[in-house]
# Entry
Amino acid sequence: MKKSLAMTADWNAIHSIQIAYTFQSTDQSWCVSKDIQGFSSVRAEFEERLVRHIAKSNKLAFTINRTATSLDIKTEQPFSQLVYDLLRLPQAHYPPMMEVSESSKIIAHVLRALNLNNINFTGDPGTVIGENGFLEGELINNIIIRIREAAKGNEYKTKSNERRKLINEQIRITERNIAKFFKKTPSLYVVRKTFCYKHDVVNNISLQETDGHLQRFINALISDLPDCHILGCWWKREYITEASYRYSVVIFINSSNTLCGESFVEIDSQWQLATDGIGVVCDYILSPYNGILGNVGSIGKEHDFYHSTLLSNMSGILKRDLYLRLKPHPDFKHFGMEMLSK
# Structure
């Protein structure tokens, strides 16, 4: 019974992805791409979850029994609605520096092989498609069968597991270093920032340039802000089609040795200086249910709720790489956690 309830909750979550994107639902706690607000990321997450659950089940969207004189169709939820949602989504276009998941590759291959461009889906599985009498419901079932077969292949499993392994290692690094910060100071203060670029330059910044900006910013935390007593800096680089390179940054401060409020403006200024004025700070406020309340606050041991939610939120940012990520580069890493104070 517990397993059945868990599966139902997860299915409800992935079905909500399309609803939330279409109607801009305020409740997006189910989606780790919620703070990106980019269509490509939301679609990629939808595809990953859909393929994963199709692979785990033996069901089809419709049970179809037809004879020369009768037609009986039984709908299996949620498969039918989920596949229809997929077909209604517009195509996502990914820049060359991005790498989609194996699930997205499977879906793209299946839809391309079936040549669905000229088919107008009605939402009625009994609708006849073309002159051969093929039913819309049969085509939906065929999509599911092809996705399931591809998802059971060794290449899909191997490459998906490689991504998960890398993400899990990054999460372990995050947890281990935060534990080290706690050891240094029982009252840890965190400043969370989101750094990106001005709209008029987003299409003109190379990976080498943006990495240089990041390194200049991290170096400035050490050399230019000695009075802030910064212990370390966690960062994750992503690329958003609508906004170019984007950094999620969490800065850890020894609050017993500094006036934290004076540090926030200085940190913002350092990003603008590091980017020669083209960088901007894109802060957003998370609800208490989704992450740390606001962008700053204590996560000392007496604040277990904020400690756990911060870790959960940072892990969620890393897990986005499962769906859509910057291509690995031999010279530039896209994640780091720097220990800035000995």
Notes: The CA atoms of residues 113 and 136 lie 16 Å apart.
